[in-house]
Amino acid sequence: MVPAICTMDDLQALEQRALDELAGCQSEEALRAWNSRYLGRQGELTLALKKIGSLPASQRPAYGQAVNRLKESLQQAYNRQQSALREQVIARRLASEALDVTLPGRQPSRGRLHPATQMMREILAIFAEMGFQIFHSREVEDDLTNFELLNMPPHHPARDLWDTFYTTRPGIILRTHTSPGQIHVMRRLCPQPIRVVLPGMCYRYEQITPRSEIMFQQVEGLAVGTRVRLTDLVGTIQAFARRLFGRDRQVRLRSSYFPFTEPSLEVDVSCLVCGGRGCSLCKHTGWLEIMGAGMVHPVVLRNGGYDPSRFSGFAFGLGPQRITMLLYGVPDIRLFWSNDLRFLRQF
Ligand code: DAH
After folding, report:
1. Which ligand 1 atom lies nearest to the CA of residue 161?
2. What is the mean pLDDT of residues 277-281?
3. Which atom of ligand 1 is nearest to the CA of 176?
4. N or C: more exposed end of the chain, with fewer CB within 10 A?
């Protein structure tokens, strides 16, 4: 119950009480409550003013003025208390949220390219500079293109070189190498001359070991024309190997066998670690194998639509993971797809 106020003494008591309470207001919330209790529309001062009617007319002007003065001085006291409180809040925040702008910034964490992507781009850039176009071929292949059209009929023993992932659809497999892309390119471009590289993932149903994975990348190369010779293949491989491994790398060609090339070669470079003297990386041979290659077999040319009596071609296939392992001393091929950041961050 608000006490009935209508004498000057009452006003003085009211002022004292209001100021005492104001001094105790330590939050915005308390201040707001105080404000509506004393200065609000239903506040004590409004009520005090309404009491004026019960006074004799002669006292009314003085009383009215006193109420108004009191109202004004309480309003000022309120404003002072409010700004003091706000300053306190700001001062407290400044102290607790102090920011040292001279500290070095935090390094934002930026993503980076996977080492496999980096190496793939490097290899493709070298071939692109030599005039090879990039051709993307499918990863889900048919048995026909992956084997038969590459001169490996159904029971050819060379199929044993590639353990295959079969799908539930008869004749549909995951490609075991990028070589079937040769057929796709030839059929697409025949009878134009061809100079392409075919990068991509290959799959083999093999035991996973430090040296073999069930998925890995390959880069296939194919050149077809009316005057493509073995010397063109040798020159291309040499230029590539020197660009990727360094100017003073030696390149060695060994005779080999692939069903889709004749003659077939395996390509070695002089060891990156010992330069050819012999060490554990090259198993004391002085050489590291980097790719298979050869002159495109006439059967394959014909399957691609090219007449082998007019056209000839060379092809090669290399494994970027293997090359990255040689160049950077990566001991285990499983590191490539294991998503171990400690490995990936080194590139
Ligand atoms: N496709 C072979 C493999 O996966 C690599 C290869 C060897 C590709 C000789 C070629 C080549 O184009 O001529 O082992």
Report:
1. 14
2. 85
3. 4
4. N
pLDDT digits (tens, 9 = 90+) for 190-203: 999 999 999 999 99
pLDDT for residue 1 is more than 50: no
To test the pocket of ligand 1, the residue of 146, 178, 179 to mutate (highest count of ligand atoms within 8 Å of its CB) is: 179
pLDDT for the residue 2: 46
**Sheet with 261-270: strands ordered across:** 133-134, 194-203, 215-225, 312-318, 287-296, 261-270, 251-258
The answer to which of 4-18, 143-157, 231-245, 304-318 has the lowest mean pLDDT is 4-18
Nearest CA to ligand 1 atom 7: 292
Which residues line the pocket of ligand 1, CB cutoff 6 A?
177, 179, 220, 258, 261, 292-294, 315-317
Hey, is 233 helix, strand or coil? helix
Q: How many angstroms from the chain centroid is the CA of residue 149? A: 39
Q: Give the distance (Å) from ligand 1 centre to CA of residue 281.
A: 23
Distance CA 68, CA 45 (A): 8
Quick one: tokens of 8?
């000057």
Counting Cβ atoms within 10 Å, is residue 313 exposed (0-12), middle (13-18) or buried (19+)? buried
- In angstroms, the CA 17 to CA 346 distance is 74
- DSSP bridge pairs for 222: 196, 315
Find the 51 Cα to ligand 1 centroid distance in Å.
Answer: 108
C-alpha 248 – ligand 1 centre gap (Å): 26
**Cα 275 to ligand 1 centroid, rounded to whole Å:** 26
Task: Please give the pLDDT value at position 99.
Answer: 84
Alpha helices in 97-224 (DSSP H): 115-129, 143-146, 180-189
